[in-house]
Specification:
The protein is mainly alpha-helical. It is 64% helix and 0% strand. It folds into 2 domains: 1-76, Multidrug-efflux Transporter Regulator, Chain: A, Domain 2, CATH 1.10.1660.10; 81-147.
């Protein structure tokens, strides 16, 4: 017999709160979860696999509305496989574009960091006094707050 997990066990394993799991079920992201005799939710390995996939979608910043649409298509059955594949392909294109944009931003940050490193090296050691520093404590001091 397959072991069934309580909502607290699922919350611990996934990092989601019990409230989030209930919310996901209420809005249709998760199909109605089976219940024990006392009415407590009992999650199967299939439920866990689906939740793990939802977490992957969430990590890729898929909007919850699209996640709900995907879940609804999944609930209809195999006739929606092409629609689900197309949705994932479109989302993957968005994710890859976001990755490219982040790489460009990371490259710009690296260039700016190198610019400041070269500036630091060209400045005399005495010119990096408290007036020229921007660490957290000097920022607080300049703002009139004690460190």
């Amino acid at each position: 017999m397959e072991s069934r997990l309580s909502i607290d066990e699922v919350a611990r394993r996934t990092g989601l709160t019990a409230d989030t799991l209930r919310y996901y079920e209420r809005i249709g992201l998760i199909a109605r979860i089976g219940r024990a005799a006392g009415g407590q939710r009992r999650y199967t390995s299939s439920d866990m696999a689906w939740i793990e996939f939802l977490l992957r979608l969430r990590t890729t910043h898929m909007p919850i509305g699209k996640m709900r649409m995907f879940a609804a298509l999944r609930g209809v059955g195999d006739s929606t496989v092409p629609d689900r594949r197309r949705m994932l392909e479109a989302h993957l294109a968005d994710v890859l574009a976001e990755i490219d944009a982040m790489r460009g931003s990371a490259t710009a940050l690296q260039a700016k960091i190198e610019h400041y490193r070269s500036l630091e090296q060209s400045l005399a050691p005495d010119s990096l006094s408290d007036e020229g520093r921007t660490d957290e404590s000097s920022l607080r001091t300049r703002a009139g707050k004690a460190p």
